[in-house]
Fold:
Amino acid sequence: MKLKSLLLSTALGVVLTSATLANTPPSVKATNVLEAFAESHLTTDANKLEKILSADAHMKFTKGSEVITQGQPAIVKLMRLNHGTKQNCSTVVDILASSEAMVLAKVNFVYEGFVIENYLTLEMDRYQNWKITRIDKFFNEAETPDVLTRNKKSI
Structure:
């Protein structure tokens, strides 16, 4: 009899746990993170950027022939230095590849005369939230034909 009670209690616990987890709201979609990245750039909002960057995120860009790498604290610090500056550009977002746990996207900031081209890697963290783990940044002249994204989605 004790065994039946134990089995019944265990089964009930499993059912209740499953029902509770089924009602958990879905994680933030990767597209929302991409939109937040674009918005944080347009308004230089370091707090917004910090929320969507992984703690071990890094950004790479070139300075002449040298590749510079900055970690998450340096990325956020630089944005804080420019806090409140409104960028005069348009934004183009394109998801290049995606899976259940990783997304590769291109986010272009198109200014008059040049484009800041960002390739972002997003990964799902252990809490099922999308975080940016890598940013590869390129500065190009706007006339370069390969710079602008083919499948355009302006934000």
Summary: Residues 2-22 form the longest helix (21 residues). The first strand starts at residue 53 and ends at 63.
